[in-house]
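Homework help board

Subject: predicted structure for assignment chain

Our instructor gave us this sequence and asked us to write out the predicted structure in token form, then describe one feature. I got the tokens but I'm not sure how to describe them. Can anyone check?
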Amino acid sequence: MRRQKFFMNTETKQKLLPDYGRSKLLTYADSFRELAGTFEEMPEKNDEDVVLDRQEMLWKTKLKDNCELMAGQLNEIANIMEEVAEESFCFETLGEKKTKLVTQSLMVDNIQVQEVYRIQNREGFDEYILLARKSGKREKNVQEVADILSVVLNCRLMPAEGCPILLTDTYQTFRFTEESKFHVLTGTAIAVKENEEVSGDNYSIYQTDRGKLTMLLSDGMGSGEKANEDSRIVVELMEKLLESGFRPEMAVQMINSSILIGGGEHNMSSLDMCQIDLRTGGAELIKIGGASTYIKRAHLVEQISARNLPLGIFREIETEPVIRQLMDGDYIFMFSDGISDGLAEGIGEEALSEIISRMTLENPKEMANYLLNYVIRESKGRIRDDMTVLVVGLWENMC
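My token output:
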């Protein structure tokens, strides 16, 4: 029985979701917007004859602020739903000549291809989909397919996340994405405050198959288990919100709101975020009350400092991102306050720029350990605060 062809021979724009799913998601978005409107339009009593005492005035102000925060968050959720509902992609077959070349090249290696087409995702990068199986007895893995496709299609391809590892005797669907222009190495080093069992700092470094590397670092107020719990919640919430599609600025505002509404259950914490697009080298940094971040290019070092206070103090916080274009061989250094505080009083962050610029090490892990050990030596072996060092090095992939 001949398998029905689903894809057309010309480039076609296709919605990610079927009509029923899109309609339902858009209905949910409208409901969230209407709910947000009820918070935005809550009437205020302006009875001039009623005199409110100070406690009642504070309660009324806090209620109004919380309603505005809730409205903003509900609108953001509605925006994400609409974006997903309207998300589309372009797909096309490769044409008879190129399809034949792909099919014949893989057949030489005992790999049979039944379908092959290209998809352009929302970031504008190409993905290739193959319906294929092995035809010989020798075991075949998906990396072999990626290598052959890279040569035939003249672009560096890699198996997408979740792609089957091995080819079998039955047809399977394999997805390949363009390999990022850059690759990274990371290094970390931590030291726990003396007389404490756990660090009050928490961090996360993760990469997605969309070609983005995210670094998160939070320093909880104080030290010990309570500070650890506060900073852990900040990092985990930020990671989940970013993965769910929230813009970094809105994610920060939502976490800040949750701390404020919590009524003191969680103490204030700093938050540093650096997101690197490995396809372009573009970097976006957001700093909320944290220590300075440094970008090293050869012997030149740029210091990026926060001009705001930690989370959980003000209702609205400044989240204007800092944008930088990274190059081959650049390094990014992120620290908790314990590093700069461990250096000579008054010169901590300025001294770090000089120390980083003189470094000749190239491995991020060695860099992180060197900086941590240097600060501990400068403190005469004392660890008066939790210390965390994150280092990421960026290099272009070889053609």
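Reply (TA_rk): Your tokens look well-formed. For the description, you could write something like this. The first strand starts at residue 12 and ends at 15. That's the kind of observation they're looking for.
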